[in-house]
Design a protein that fits this description.
The structure holds two protein chains of two kinds.
Chain A (H helix, E strand, L loop, with lengths): L2 E3 L4 E5 L4 E3 L2 E3 L6 E7 L6 E7 L6 E3 L2 E6 L4 E6 L8 E8 L6 E2 L3 E6 L1
Parallel strand pairs in A: 2-12
Antiparallel strand pairs in A: 1-4, 3-9, 5-6, 5-10, 7-8, 8-9, 10-11, 10-12
Chain B lengths: L4 E3 L2 E4 L5 E6 L6 E7 L6 E7 L2 E5 L7 E4 L6 E5 L8 E8 L11 E2 L3 E5 L1
Parallel strand pairs in B: 2-11
Antiparallel strand pairs in B: 1-3, 3-8, 4-5, 4-9, 5-6, 7-8, 9-10, 9-11
Classes of the chains: A mainly beta, B mainly beta.
Chain lengths: 113, 117
């Protein structure tokens, strides 16, 4: 079975604080892909990152960084020096193959100015 | 604008009526996906097409739901005899065909919000 758990339902931080969004996944597949999407108040899902199961290197893109650990089945997302524009719902998703995605329930991040 | 577009953006209907939504994917994308998202939940997969062929359907897709992509370009999702439980955001996404075993990122449209009264 494929499952994604985002245990943090809502997080509030003050602007410029760092924040980490947790994602834990379950799959029996040996090859799979993990994704993060952002859903701002406008509603449109915005792709942030894709990572395959063979690549455990952490990735940094500007203020965003991702920590993939197969040993703990986690793919966590950190925003450094958060900004008000980062306020959104963030979804972690699992792509077990080349087809559909399994999404978590999302974490609503509110950045307070 | 070369992103995924969906029409209409909002639809209000009465229970028992039929509704149809349209999705226009990014032009070079072979794959097209439909998802449903209810309040406070992540998107749930409904079905996907590769070109004009519908290759997978979720068990969420009851017999009242039908999707088509007749020419491998735009797609329509029809819901017959709508029920209040069908109220949700219906999302369309598209992607390039994966090379070998892969899972390319899906690009989502703005969604169609359906309210069934």
């Amino acid at each position: 079975a494929q499952k994604v758990t985002q245990a943090q339902t809502e997080i509030s931080v003050v602007e410029k604080e760092d924040v980490t969004l947790d994602c834990v996944y379950e799959t029996r597949d040996t090859t799979y892909y993990l994704f993060w999407y952002k859903q701002p108040p406008s509603g449109e899902l915005v792709f942030l990152i894709r990572r395959n199961s063979f690549d455990e290197q952490n990735e940094i893109s500007g203020r965003y960084s991702w920590n993939f650990q197969k040993s703990t089945s986690s793919f966590n997302f950190t925003i450094t020096a958060s900004q008000v524009v980062d306020s959104a719902v963030y979804f972690c998703a699992l792509g077990p193959g080349a087809n559909n995605l399994f999404f978590g329930t999302g974490t609503r991040l509110t950045v307070i100015p | 604008d070369t992103g995924v577009s969906q029409n209409p953006r909002h639809k209000i209907t009465k229970r028992g009526q039929n509704v149809t939504f349209r999705c226009d994917p990014i032009s070079e994308h072979n794959r097209l996906y439909w998802y449903r998202q209810t309040l406070g939940q992540g998107p749930e997969f409904l079905t996907y097409f590769q070109n004009e062929a519908q290759l997978e359907k979720s068990r969420l897709l009851s017999d009242r739901f039908s999707a088509e992509r007749p020419k491998g370009s735009f797609s329509t999702l029809e819901i017959q005899r709508t029920e209040q439980g069908d109220s949700a955001m219906y999302l369309c996404a598209s992607s390039l065909l994966p090379q070998g075993f892969g899972n390319n990122e899906q690009f989502f449209g703005p969604g169609t919000r359906l309210t069934v009264l």
